[in-house]
Every structure is written in structure tokens, then in C-alpha cells.
Amino acid sequence: MDSKFQRVNSDENDSPIQFSPKEQWRIWKNVLVVGFAFMLQFTAFWGASNLQSSVNAEASLGTFTLAAIYGSLILSNIFLPVIVIRWLGVKWTICLAFLVYVPFIMAQFYPRFYTMIPAGLAVGFGGGPLWCAKCTYLTILSEAYAKVTGVGADITVTRFFGVFFLFYQFSQVWGNLISSAVLSSEGPAVAALSNSTLNNITFADVFNVSTASRNSEEICGANFCPGTVVEAIPNLAPPSTSKINTITGIYLACMIAAVLAVAFGVDSVKRYDQGRKGSGSDISGLRLLAVIVKQLANPYQILILPITMFIGAEQAFLAADFTSAFVSCGWGISNIGFVMICFGVCNGIASIFIGGIIKITGRSPVVCLALSLHVALIVTLLVWKPSEQAKLTFFIIAGLWGFCDAIWLVQINSLYGILFPGKEEAAYSNFRLWESTGSVITYIYSPYLCIDVKLSLLLCLLIIGACGYTAVEVIEWKGKDGELGGKREFKLVKSGEKEKSLEVAD
């Protein structure tokens, strides 16, 4: 394959630029900077989000804020990504979306419904364009890299997404390390208790370890229900305001650094897109909804919707329910960060190695492994009774959950790029739409259902999603003629070609 290719600028008067094989290093620089910026951004966001259901537990403020985030993210994915990307371009869409997350962090200084909910809605509206822009950017870079190096684009896109998610998932490490380092310096739990809580706790409840341990095993885990009397468990004592403010200040600095990294360290996508038209070009207003609905008519899109929803649901369960019903209740709020660090490390390491493993085994064996492990984890949570005496179990469950989540994220993200080349905006808008739908449904019913019911629902969704994914693999394996099946390859689309040229090349 020719090692050079032409990039045609959006301005037709500009002369074409020839790229040499050395361009691959510049492409890698862009991938790494984008990954690093997202790591900084979500160090702050995930660090704050993982504490919401425990720190802002009063009247379920934290959980409803998370629901607001993902609820507005659904609308954002429907109406905003293509429009915003067309107006600002991929690079500046990422920068603006990063800034939209800032009010959510600032609201932690004064957490009330009238500060947290609007800030959460803003995050959701910025999230749709952000993730669509990121996915589009990495996919276009993978196409360019394939032309420069001769490496298959399907391999390259999986590799780029794997590297990205390595950075992204390590945001769990740094965000939770920050929160745990600050919160672990808290004084005795009883000092942080509110007056109303103190009035309901007896001397024996606080200082009798066997009583607290017994209450923990009886109330926490799968038995945990909204409205359960948990005042006798000092683990649930909220941290002091000064500690929360310290964490919030650090998170704000991370978000500003993320914006600067993208603004000054990332090349415009115009350098690599060869004037290529995405599926949402020249679409505005409600016409974008028609594009997304049209994408839903694709049988592949329908089949992978349940597994896409599961990704959102399992992440929401981990953030809202595992952290509160298992870690906070069974061990203490200050330990949430340490447990979630284990999740982030395993998630990040798995993300970077999955691409290489896929080259050897193919997608199906890896997905089967994730399915088996995730089923086993859900069943374990249904029967396990968390307590301070079983500290290692918290880390094992979080680590394996992170391993499974990495497989789902990398494989389903890359699968969207492989199945729908040239339609990234509509395809990834659908991905974020249904992932967010899974999350928001989980957050909405979280304050009303017991943990055992939530785990049962999660297990059912996983099984349905696995069936849909299997159907896609079977159709591809059979290699049927027509729109479904057949060998797929990426196709670089030149400016001026009609929309029909964006269809998948068989």
C-alpha cells in the first residue's frame, strides 16, 4: 500500500498536503494527548460522581443529580452532537464540553437541589457532543493511520480505543486516590455525624464493634433497601465540609488543565479527514433526530442496543449502589476511593491489552469471558454479606468488574466503528443515547428498589444483550449477502461524494 496519502483541506483553494510515514508519530501524539486530557477531566468527574450517593445521600440528592446528568445526556445525544461538531469542529467541541462540566464540580461547594440538579443537567448536555466528538476523532485518526502504515483499519481503531480507555479508566485511579487521601485524614466517624443522627444512636451502637459488624452484615449488600434504618452503622457518617471543599478545589484544577491540553496539544481533525463527510453533515434542528432514527432501522443497531444499555446500567450500579450499599455501608465512606482505584487500575490495564488479545483470539472468546465473569459477579453480590472483616473481597469484586467493563467498552465502541464506517456521528450518538438510557433508568429506580432487585434486573439485561451481540457475530460469520454480513472495511470518503457512498462497503 502506498505509504503517502493526500489530505484535501476544507478550503478548496488550499493545495493538498502530502503525509510521509513519519506522520504516524504525530497521529499517536494526538491520540495520547486526547487520552491524557480525558483522564484529567474524568479524574474530577468520576471522583466526584463516586461519592454522590454517599456524601450527598440526604433526600437522595446525589443519586437524583446523577439521574439528571444521564437524563439530559439522552436528549443531548439526540439533538446536539452533529450540530455542535459542525459549528465548532471536533477539537473545539471537546474543549467547550469540558468547560460545561465545571459547574458540576463547583456545585459541590454548596450542594443543594437548586445548585446540583442544574449543574447535572449541564453535564449531560455537554456529554453528548463530547463523546461523539471523541469517537469521531479517534475513528478518523485510525483511518488516516491505516493509510500511512498499511495496518488494517479495524485493528487500528481497536488499538486507538484501547489506548484511549487506558487513560480514561485510570481517571478512576487518580480521582479516587485524591478523594481517599483527603477523606482518610478525617477524624473519628462519630465527630462527623449530624445532630439528628446522634439523637438516634446509642452509646453501644457507636462503640460496640460486634454490634456494628452484625448490623452491617444484616443491612448492607443485597439486603440494603431505600429507607432502611442505618443510623446504627457509623460507616455511613458523612465527611466534613472542609474535606469536601479541598477535594472540589483539586478537581477544578484538573478540569482546567484538561481544557488547556486539548486547546494547545491536539491537531484539528481537518488535517486528516480528507474532506470526508459524516452522516450528519449539513443536518440541523430536528432533522438530526431523523438521522438517528434512521440509524435505528439498521438491524445491527437494534441487535446491539441491549448490550449498549447494559454498559450504562452496570456503570450506574457500580457508582450509585455498589459504593453505597456495599463499600460505604460495609466498610466506610473513606474507603470508597481505595476500592474504586482497584476498579480503575484493572479497567485501564485490561483496556490496553484487549486489542492485542483480540488479534490472537478474535472478539468472541473475549466477550464470552466478560459475560461469564459478569454473571458470576452479579450472583456473588446477591449472596455476599459485606463487612470490614472481608476487605480483600471488596477489591476483588471491584477489580473483576473493571476488567469486564473494559472489555464491554472497548469492544462495543470499536464494533460501532467497524459496523458503521462513515456514519460515526449517528452511530456514536446512538451508542451514547442507549448507554445513557441504561444509566438514567438505573439511577431513577435506585432510590426506590432494593439491591437484590436491582441485581436481578441487571442480570436479565446482560443476558438479553449477550443474545443480541451473539446474533451480530453469527450473521457476520455466515457472511450473508446484502446489507447484513460480508467482509467490512473502512472507506475514506472524498469531499463531494454523495451520501450513498457513505454506506458500508461490502
Task: List the defining traits of the structure above.
single chain, 506 residues, 71% helix, 1% strand, disordered C terminus, disordered N terminus
Topology of this structure?
Blueprint (H helix, E strand, L loop, with lengths): L5 E2 L9 E2 L4 H33 L5 H19 L1 H20 L1 H5 L6 H37 L3 H31 L11 H4 L4 H5 L1 H11 L21 H25 L21 H10 L2 H5 L1 H26 L5 H26 L1 H21 L7 H29 L4 H22 L5 H28 L28
Antiparallel strand pairs: 1-2
Helix pairs in contact: 1-2, 1-5, 1-6, 1-10, 1-13, 2-5, 2-17, 3-5, 3-10, 5-6, 5-17, 6-10, 6-14, 6-16, 11-17, 13-16, 13-17, 13-18, 14-15, 14-16, 15-16, 15-18
GO molecular function: potassium channel regulator activity
Family: Belongs to the unc-93 family.
InterPro entries: Ion_channel_UNC-93, MFS_trans_sf, UNC-93_regulatory
Description:
The radius of gyration is 23 Å and the shape is globular. The chain starts with 5 loop residues before the first strand and ends in a 28-residue tail after the last helix. It has helices at about 25-55, 60-80, 80-100, 100-105, 115-150, 155-185, 195-200, 205, 210-220, 240-265, 285-295, 300-305, 305-330, 335-360, 365-385, 390-420, 425-445, 450-480, and strands at about 5, 15-20. It contains 18 helices and two strands. A two-stranded antiparallel sheet has the order 1-2. Mean pLDDT is about 80; it is low at about 1-15, about 185-210, about 480-485 and about 490-505. With about 500 residues, it is mostly helical.
